[in-house]
Amino acid sequence: MKDKSTHNKIFKGTINALFQRAAPFLDIRDNDVHVQISYEFAGRLLKCYPGADQEIVLPAIILHDIGWKTIPEEELFNSFGPKMKDNTNQRRHETEGAKMADDILSSLGFPRNKIDQITSIINGHDTRLEALSLNDQLVKDADKLWRFTPTGVDIDHKRFGIKRDEYVAYLDTVIEQWMFTPEAKEMAQEALNQVKEDVKGK
Fold first, then answer.
1. Mind giving me the DSSP string for 39-107?
2. Longest dimension (CA), the chain
3. Which whole-number Å values give the CA distances from 168 to 99, 171, 195, in the listed order?
């Protein structure tokens, strides 16, 4: 049986492999930036919840948006955000992403029970309002937390065609609605406060 340090080293290598395998599918919609920031938030949330499983949460956050690659580029910006016109593609990116994730995880030798949990989280991370588990809560929270960061605000207010101050005011109203864990609510408010400070400093 492998000791814990050896297991962690192997898992770290697997995470690096997942990022490499996901990269070709994250070169649209600023998903490469989004996933990296969300991954960092997922790590912070995992430290608050030792009962959660990093071997489910971290792969899920890396792979959760790879399904957007299957959506025609001209349809992308009508498929998400506050001005979304049709949620068909939003749902499609979840179902297709879950299939793609299954293939990637299987090729890397992930245990089937973990693959099933990861793909279940991916298949509903945006459209499913309730969380399946603590792991799902952390993925959902990490996914949305990036929106409150200076980088997320800069990207989103421009692509949604909303004035920065109006978008920041909107984000202030959705923290309680969007976040599951109290720690994520605190992180969202802290990140948004930084955005407000940055604006004051300009």
1. HHHHHHHHHH-TTS-HHHHHHHHHHTTGGGGGS-GGGGGGSSSTT-S-SHHHHHHHHHHHHHHHHHHHH
2. 56
3. 35, 5, 8
d(CA 118, CA 107): 15
- Name, in order, each residue with C-beta under 8 angstroms of 38's C-beta and a sequence gap of 6 or more: 61, 142, 143, 145, 146
Does residue 1 have a pLDDT over 50? no
pLDDT score of 190 more than 50:
yes
Task: Convert the pLDDT of each residue in 64-94 to its tens digit.
Answer: 999 989 988 777 676 566 666 677 888 889 9
Start-to-end CA span in the chain (Å): 56
Question: Tokens for 122?
Answer: 């991916």
Taking 50 as the threshold, does the pLDDT of residue 47 lie above it? yes
In the numeric block, which tokens belong to residue 162?
A: 């909303």
Instruction: Name the CATH architecture for the domain at 4-201.
Output: Orthogonal Bundle (1.10)
Distance CA 25, CA 4 (A): 32
Query: What does the pLDDT average to over 89-116?
Result: 94
Phi-psi label, residue 178: left if phi above 0, alpha if psi -120 to 50, beta otherwise? alpha
Percent with pLDDT over 90 in the chain: 71
- Answer whether 202's CB lies under 8 Å from 164's CB: no
Average pLDDT for 108-116:
94
In a 13 Å sphere around the CA of 80, the CA atoms on its Cβ side amount to: 22
